[in-house]
User: What shape does this take?
Amino acid sequence: SSGINAEYGIHPGSTLLNLQVTEVTREELESAPPPPPQFKLPITLQYRPDLIEDILDTIIFKECPVSMFSPTYAVYAILHDAADDEGLAVDIFNRVIDDYLAAIQSSMEFVGGSLFWLTNTCELYHLVQTHPKLSEISKQVDLGPVVKAAIKSSIVSCTTNLEPYLSMFLIDSDMDTKLPEEAVMKADQQGSACGDLLIDKEDMASLLTEPLEDLINRHGILPESVKVYHVISVLSILTTLLHRMFVPEGARRVITQHLLAFINTWISNRVIQEDKLCRAIWGLRLQRRLDKVDQWCKRAGITKPLSQFMTELIQITDVLRAPKHDLDQLSDLLQSCTDLNSIQVGTILRKYRPGPDEEPVSREFIEAAISITDSIVDVKLRGEGEPIRPLLQDPLIRYPLHKITACNHEQGLGIALQAFFEDISGDDTGIELTVNSDIHTWCYEQTVPKQSPHDEPTRSASQGQSIIDQCDIECYKVHKNGLKLGVSIVGGKDSSNSHLGIFVKNVFKDGAAAQDGRLKSGDQILEVGGMSTDNITQEKAAELLDKEGPSVTITVAKMAAAYYGIFSEEDLTSSTYSDILP
Assistant: This one.
């Protein structure tokens, strides 16, 4: 009662086994922080340690997982159970690394499979890094190469599946000049619709194990009439898959940039190698088609200029279009090709085929161009230790691990995830499953007590801002064309999730937003017409969206709802304002 630990005859100042026992006052006892709560997951997997290799093989190499994150959450549950046994946990980590690398390698041929494993790899990395015990144990192993392998596999897969369509970019026709201004928007919308269709209609087995071309052909989404823009449609399909398969924002950006860089390398090398493409008419065609790709980039929310990803191809179009008759024109030509080396410039000029009203490029002009390029571009390359190559090389893949984020998509134990766990448990697998129905989070970060959302004055001071920082921020000008915007929204300060903001719930097919094709269910609306949606009601947000005028400008955080994990069925059916329907 005095606050002194006197049990078993231990008194203040005495020692027992060299342990000094000190007096603790009642005030100190009452003010001491409570012990941290035991961290539990929505499920517990019990297993025989001697069967761990077979169990991991069952989880990771299951023929058709029914849930997007099923292997990662099962592996995470096993690691969590082993966290108190450091040696066992390290052994499991090493086995998981080997199995994940094998799965990543085997899925490289298929876009769906490679993105599936990229998402799962980043999710596991994030969960482990936020786990109080596993984060320390993981320092003895290296998950970094697994993430890098998944990024590389996804880039190789996306570029490989894009390549069959790149020849469409070189159709020997001026058909694209006759297409309406809306052709790029239509190609983008068709691609996005196809990506959504693949996710919504294809079963998981087909999505993960079939080439993209087969999936596209099955749905017949790319019409013959706009072949020249098939590249844009396929880019839209790929970027939609990146979003819908929950690839983290940083990885999505890297993959999209590499797709553009791959187009630059592939088409540039074709022009350098093929005589028929070294003509002024092709300089004009390529310029027009690159302008369409630039339009697509702006629609896709890519803020960096196209010249940053397609430097060499843009410079090649400049060389093809520039006058090449006398030496007085040489300086203007070379000012526009500061990244092409002397071999590349010389090859293009030697293969150049003049038009009906052009004179052939003289040998004197070609030799002068090679000499000047050698003294400027080649000298710079040699100084950087780079060889002077006749063709462009694929760009290096760089992705800092500190940029890895995850959406923690699974909140609790969904139907598909529970079905996966039930399927892998039983006497034949040696796994015993226990469902902890009162636990609804997998991430340790989310178990830390937070201030009540009603005590937070603005979203910028809450979890919301850090979530927004992880998302792609995009600004769309949606032309209404006499239609209603055609969306329904959830959230707002008058809702149960008032601290989170305003989200798009549905995009209706007959509205202006659906015709535009960029606004998606799950996007968080940050601004409408330059006005912030912080701390406003649903009704006010709807009023802003439905304001009279030919267009509305909307700034969104893409797919933010998936990062918050708020789109449960209950969230989507409660407190929804839908007065801005078509």
The two ends are 72 Å apart (CA to CA). DSSP finds 23 helices and eleven strands in the chain. The longest helix spans residues 249-273. The CA atoms of residues 194 and 219 lie 8 Å apart.
